Amino acid sequence: MSKPVCVVWMNEAKVYEQALARAGLADKFELHGLNPDQAIPDDVAERTEALLTRRPASVLKRMPRLRWVQAVNAGVDPWLASPNLRADVTLCCARGIHRISMPENILGAIFHLTKPYAQCVLDQRESRWAKRQSVPLAGKTLGILGLGAIGQELARKAEVLEMRVIGTKRTPTPLPHVAKVYSQEATDEVLGASDFVLLLLPSTRETENFIDARRLRAMKPSAWLLNFARGALIVDADLIAAVRAKTIAGAVLDVFREEPLPSTHPFWQTEGILVLPHIGGGHPDRAALVAELFVDNARRFLAGEPLKAAVDRARGY
């Protein structure tokens, strides 16, 4: 019986191949590791049943036997928008690999807003002794729109800092470390009660332009907006206007509609908006974590079992 053909089309192809080998699965596949700048040969594409890669490509049209795609990102917007991905192909995302790095980077952003270390660095350059004060986080309310795995891990860490955590979830059942879980329909209540509003919502038709002028007005004038989810959640012009008018205190943005963010975009020059170059989920061991998920799913694929982190195309995540 022939082995299923698996193509790993990544710069870090060796990481995934070695992970399969350590798990004793490498010899269960006809494995092809290729860099993204290498074309997948026609004879391989025609027999490919499993594909791991970063972005959808026209090569999908040459894979009639394809059954499983393992994406390496948590967000799969480009995949869902691809006309080349057949409806019968199971698409899996890399949900869960950012559970540690994202909460740490989000907390880093909150500390940046409330602690004067950045200003102290600038003071030191000029040998200037300037007394500054930190704003305590204890007693502040963190509102998380999208209480998934990342939001729940962040809530655990924020509770240790004596912050009050509230948020929204599609199914508003109680969660550990969260004072109150609201339905998405009650978003305005979370906006009005929070000192920091964090966006962790998936990018879907329902969430596009979710944060607009009306919802920004529902926030406290002293509140900060943080977006570590997807750029399309925010109406850019509305946010710029709200920050300039002091409708809200400001924003920290790690994701954008277009990346890299064009140098001409007004986010760069708007006082009160901090632009981060999509650093939220990146870390040195990221490929190894995706490889763990890939190996788990490879084992499930061979056994005919349901795959982990399979995308619900109707929901968009």
How is this structure best described in words?
The chain is 30% helix and 16% strand. The longest helix has 18 residues. The protein is elongated. The strands form 2 sheets. The protein has a 7-stranded parallel sheet, sandwiched between helices. A 5-stranded parallel sheet has the order 2-1-3-4-5. It has 2 domains: 112 residues, NAD(P)-binding Rossmann-like Domain (Rossmann fold), CATH 3.40.50; 175 residues, Rossmann fold (3-Layer(aba) Sandwich). With 317 residues, the protein is α/β, with parallel strands linked by helices.
In short:
By secondary structure, this protein is α/β, with parallel strands linked by helices. The protein has helices at 13-22, 42-47, 77-81, 101-114, 117-125, 149-160, 187-193, 213-217, 236-244, 286-303; strands at residues 5-9, 30-34, 48-53, 68-71, 90-92, 141-145, 164-168, 180-182, 196-199, 224-227, 250-253, 273-275.
Number of domains: 2
Main beta-sheet annotation: 7 strands, parallel
- Count of individual helical segments: 10
The helix/strand series, from N terminus to C terminus, equals: EHEHEEHEHHEHEEHEHEHEEH
Lateral arrangement of strands in the main beta sheet: 8-7-6-9-10-11-12
What's the level 1 CATH class of the largest domain? Alpha Beta
Rg over CA atoms, rounded to whole Å, is 22 Å
Second rung of CATH, namely the architecture of the largest domain: 3-Layer(aba) Sandwich
Low-confidence stretches: none
Q: Helix/strand/pairing class, anyone?
A: alpha/beta
- How helix-rich are the residues, as a percent range? 25-40%
Instruction: Give the averaged pLDDT, no decimals.
Output: 97
Per the CATH scheme, the topology name of the largest domain is Rossmann fold
Shape: elongated
CATH homologous group name of the largest domain:
NAD(P)-binding Rossmann-like Domain
